[in-house]
Each structure stands twice: as structure tokens, then as C-alpha cells.
């Protein structure tokens, strides 16, 4: 953990605020496109994860754009911050897969809402590599389209803004132009990501050509189960109950087990456990439905038992 003084704060829209932190140049050199930090907030608020904004590769500043929801204690804390205040951060981390672009194929970049923050670094890096990424930015309104000007400056006429007020875009039509050599870079809401992955699976666009990151907070409702079930951890001999509204990973930790984890969002694959007995409701973003059906693997940060019992190799 390290403390950073806030060197600048900008209001980018009615709900999005930008924070720039004073940082030595050698630390900036460690940032890669898609890097994020854990912001450690005071009291019971806990930690939140925010991606870095990078319009150059390498980065020249440690900048974050954060969407505030004033009903949340974390947003109230962020709103209270002023220039010169110090914030506590851990990082950088990076879960955004870096697709090494071969000579062939296009790079298609899709950002949804505040998911644009890691996308800025991806676009900047592709341009430094001499690529010409095709960028699509989906927002509720033009007023929420933060960094649209900067992305236009980077990508020129290959940048397309899609909002309810302006240019409309049919996602299926956009994805329908993909060729097997193309690469897709995506960051946005679960709804956007699911739509993209479902389409790509249906049309057999290779998953290894898709780099994505989900933009949400850990332990959303989708990670929890509506009904409890029993779990046996075979190697440790521990039996435990997963309660309604609890994630399986949480339940394993509460029982004193120490499964590995990283993203806690079904993206990184670190928490994978072998399933010895029981059916799984797969909610991860790692496996295709076909892979999930035969994998014998569960990602407990987001997935659950389909029935009332699960036996795991743990
Ligand atoms: S912790 Fe990353 S997939 Fe579960």
C-alpha cells in the first residue's frame, strides 16, 4: 500500500470525476494498458478497483476517471476529496489480456460507458504499434461520453461514438464484420460483455482473439445464489454450507479454506477448482458453453452448484 497526493481533480460529467495523482516517473513506467489499482477507502467502505486512464504509451500521469453513485459510501468519500489530499492505493495490477497483434487482421475496440478507462490505454498502445484500431464507444448520452475528444484525436475517423442521441449501432451488425484474423478488445458492463461473447460463440469467433474486462464491482447479485447448498472440500475434509446471497468463494474462505483468487469476477481463472461431484451453474467469462460442459472445473468467485450438493478437490 502506498499513499499518493491528489494533484488535480476534474469534473468530466455530472457523475464522472477524474483524479490525477502525483507519481514519480519510474512508477509510471510500470503501468501497462488496462492497469488498475485498488483504492483503499477509510472505515468500513473497503477497497474499490479503478482502471488507469492512459492516452500515451507509456503513461505520463497516474489518472483515474471514476463514476460516482452518491448513494454509495465510496462515492461520498471520493466526492469529499480535494487537491492535496492523500489516497491509499495498492497496485498496479493488470487483468486485461494483452493481445499481441500479428501483422494480419484488424483490431476492433469496444467500450461501454465508464469501461472506456482501460480502453484508452489499449487504443494508445495499438496506435504506438502502428495499428489502426476501429473504436466503438457506447454511452447513454453524449454528456456521459467522457474522453470522446481524446479518442477521436487518437483514432481519427476510425472512432465511432454510439449514444441514444446520435449515431445508433447494431452490435450484431458490428460483430458480423469480424474475420477470423481480427482481434476484439472489450470493456463494459456485464450486459455488453455477455452480448459480445454470446455472439462470438455463436459465430465461432475464437475466444483467444478476444481480450476483455468486465466493468463492475465484485460480488454483484450475479455472483450470489438464491438458494443455499452444501459443499464438501474433499482433501481438507471440511463440509460447509453456502448461504443464499453468498458467493461460493466467500463461503470457502469463511470455512477457513484458502482458495487462490485474484479478480473475483470470473475473468482471470486463478480460482479454478476441480469438481468431483455435482452439477455447476457456470457464470464465468472464461469458458465457452461447450468448454464449460466438459471442463470439470468451477470458478467459485462467480459460479455455483446447480443442485443442493457439490464436492470439490480442495
Ligand atoms: S478469481 Fe478470477 S476467475 Fe475467480
Any descriptors?
Elongation Factor Tu (Ef-tu), domain 3, 314 residues, six-stranded antiparallel barrel, Rossmann fold, binds FE2/S2 (inorganic) cluster, Ubiquitin-like (UB roll), single chain
**Sheet/helix structural class:** alpha/beta
Strand content: 25-35%
- The percentage helix is 10-25%
CATH superfamily membership of the largest domain: Nucleotide-binding domain of ferredoxin-NADP reductase (FNR) module
CATH class of the largest domain: Alpha Beta
Number of domains: 3
Please tally the β strands and state the result: 18
Our measurement of the CA-to-CA distance between the termini, rounded to an integer number of angstroms, reads 30 Å
Please tell me the CATH architecture of the largest domain by its name.
Answer: 3-Layer(aba) Sandwich
Q: Spell out the helices and strands N to C.
A: EEHEEEHEEHEHEHEHEEEHEEHEEE
Question: Uncertain regions: pLDDT < 50 for 5+ in a row?
Answer: 217-222
Strand neighbour order, sheet with most strands: 1-2-5-4-3-6
Number of helices, where a helix is a run of at least 4 consecutive DSSP H or I residues: 8
| Mean pLDDT metric | 90
**What is the fold-level CATH name, i.e. the topology of the largest domain?**
Rossmann fold
Largest sheet: 6 strands, antiparallel, barrel
The gyration radius over C-alpha positions equals: 20 Å
Which small molecules are bound?
A: FE2/S2 (inorganic) cluster
Coarse shape: globular
Summarize this, please?
The chain has 314 residues and is α/β, with parallel strands linked by helices.
